Amino acid sequence: MSEKSILLIDDEETIQEVVKIGIEIEVDWHVAIASSGSEGINLAQTQHPDVILLDVMMPDMDGFSTVAQLKANAKTRSIPVIFLTAKTQAVEKDRCKQLGVVDVITKPFNSMTLASQIAKILHWDL
Predict the structure, then answer these.
(1) Does domain 5-122 have CATH number 3.40.50.2300?
(2) What InterPro entries does this protein's entry cite (predicted)?
(3) What pTM was computed for the model?
(4) What are the structural domain ranges in the chain?
(5) Sequence-distant (≥ 6) Cβ neighbours of residue 67 within 8 angstroms
């Protein structure tokens, strides 16, 4: 199994720690963390991760605005984005699809199986 790189864009430190520890324990993928949409966009441009996990509700720039900017940029548009959010209403899911988000993982989630969920969504072998 090749090591994957994950970019988590989430403003909550607890979520950052849980995701990083869970993924690194389960599969030893590299997890980079950004605390805001703008920081995440910059990291995505320089590190070009295999997937971006993106929170919807963040101050300054929400997940919808962040993914729109990622998809508008030639350097980042091909990076799959998975929303990691508690917002799972049908309207939100439709909006996610329109923006090109691959899937939605609902909070709360099991951090010890998060990598398996990501791999299943993206059809990666573990």
Answers:
(1) yes
(2) Bact_response_regulator, CheY-like_superfamily, Sig_transdc_resp-reg_receiver
(3) 0.93
(4) 5-122
(5) 54, 81, 83, 99, 100, 101
